[in-house]
Each structure stands twice: as structure tokens, then as C-alpha cells.
Amino acid sequence: MSDGTAMSRRTEPERIVLDHVSKDFPTASGVLHAVEDVSFGLGEGQFVSLVGPSGCGKTTLLAMIAGFTRPTRGSVTLDGRPIIGPGPDRGVIFQEYAVFPWLDVHDNIAFGLTLRANRTAPPEREAVVDRYLQLMGLKGFEAAYPKTLSGGMKQRVALARAYAVNSPFLLMDEPFGALDAQTRSAMQDLLLEVLEQENKTVLFITHSVEEALYLSSRIVVITARPARIRHTVTVPFPYPRRQELHRAPEFLDLRDEVHALVMREYAVQERQRESGPSL
Questions:
Q1: At 110, which helix (H) or strand (E)?
Q2: Of the candidates 61, 212, 92, which has an alpha carbon nearest to the alpha carbon of residue 163?
Q3: Which of 150, 151, 110, 108 is nearest to 127 (CA)?
Q4: Could you count the other beta carbons within 10 Å of the beta carbon of residue 144?
Q5: How many domains does the chain divide into?
Q6: How far is residue 26's CA from residue 218's CA, in Å, rounded to a whole number?
Q7: Domain-embedded: residue 108
Q8: What pLDDT, in 10s, does the model give residues 20-77?
Q9: pLDDT tens digit string along 183-195?
Q10: Do 249 and 153 belong to one domain?
């Protein structure tokens, strides 16, 4: 485990870089400082999770990488170029089931391949859709509409659609947070299985330290607002990973250590609430 300054010593080439990033929002009672002086990077093929208290600024960090908003100070770059807006190279998956209710499963997955940025010829499009129907366990549900699907199935469709456009970066904001425990576990394994076959770089937001440890190559612990980097954790467990890892003593010890860090930030957040709003 290391503090935030240690990340600059990593040797992997970084493609997405946040350099001394801060983000402020104007409010009726003054300026809200959401993010303050955050620096970290995502290297090719890494799976990086952000964990921290609710409302601490994790989603704001993801939104700046997605291009939905821009930093007040500092820079967010992709391959050395400033990120100034959304792009097809960054797929975003939210906790809500982002599927189109008027399209069946097949057409939901194919949707991104019909847009100008990722448009493909019909034969290629069908091949891509069929591939992800198979990978995501959706074969046989091609003609089903979202209203007939369970929450887990809807999220499989959302994941399949994000993968189908072949974005090299996946930005995932609590994608399994609304699922029951058994479905969540299955979705974690499915994500790891797909990533074994697809070269993706992932930024993943979760409130579950155990989920972050199971999935990630690196964890960034975020402070209570304003978001800063409290610690970074290099996860020592090799891929591929299986459910048995959850019972390993080394996994349990590291889970408890990271959980203690996060709970300290929740305690800070609670003290902030008791002392009144801080802008």
C-alpha cells in the first residue's frame, strides 16, 4: 500500500492522465469544492477501482474522464491530448439499466454500431452482436424487450452494448450496485471472463471493498469531499481470479485493511455533516 504520491513511480505507460485536477461547482451559498488536486493515471489494460464515501466526488472524477464535464483546474488527457468531450473510445456504464425500452435485446446491442462514430456494415454488425450475445449469456433472448428481463439480464444487455462498440476504455459507475448478492457475484465473474478475452482498460466505481479487490489491479481510496487521493493499493492477486479467492487469508487481510481506510473517511464525512455544510 502507498500514498498517492507513489503512483508516479509506476513504469506502465499511462494513456489517461489526471494531472492536479480540481473541480468546483457554483451553488446558491458559494462554491462547492468537489475535487481537489487529484493526480493519477490509467495504463493500458489496467483495472482501477475508486472507493470512498458516498458523495465524495468519485463520479465527478469519472465524468471528467468521460468528457461530460471539464476540470476547473488541472488537466485530463488521453494519449497526451485534452479530453474536451465524450468520445467513442470511452464507453460509460451506470448503475441504472441504460437500455432502450423500445428496442429488443438484439437492437439494443447493435445500437452503437448504427451510429456514425462506430457504424459497421450489416454483416459485420450481425457478427459482432452474435459474439456478444454468446459472451454475455443472452443467446435465445434476442427478441426480448427490456420490460421482460430481470435486472441482471438488463445489465448484461448494457454491458454487451458497451463492449460491442469496441471502446478501449470502460468507465463503470457502480454497475452492479442495484443487483442482489448472487447476481452481483455472477456479473463480476462474467466481467472478468470477458476481460480475459478483450483488451480493455477499466475505471470502476464501487462502494464494496471486496468487489474492488476481486476485480481490480489497483485501488484508489478517495477521501471525504473534496475528493483527494488518500491511498493507492496495488492488488497482489494474479489473474484469472475465481470465487475461491474471497476465502484466502491474504485476501481477507487486505480487505480488512482497505475497509479500515474507507471507514476513516466515512468518519470524516460524518464530522463534516455534524459541523454543517462546507463549501
A1: helix 105-110
A2: 92
A3: 110
A4: 16
A5: 2
A6: 33
A7: yes
A8: 999 999 988 889 999 999 999 999 999 999 999 988 999 999 999 999 999 999 999 9
A9: 889 889 988 988 8
A10: no
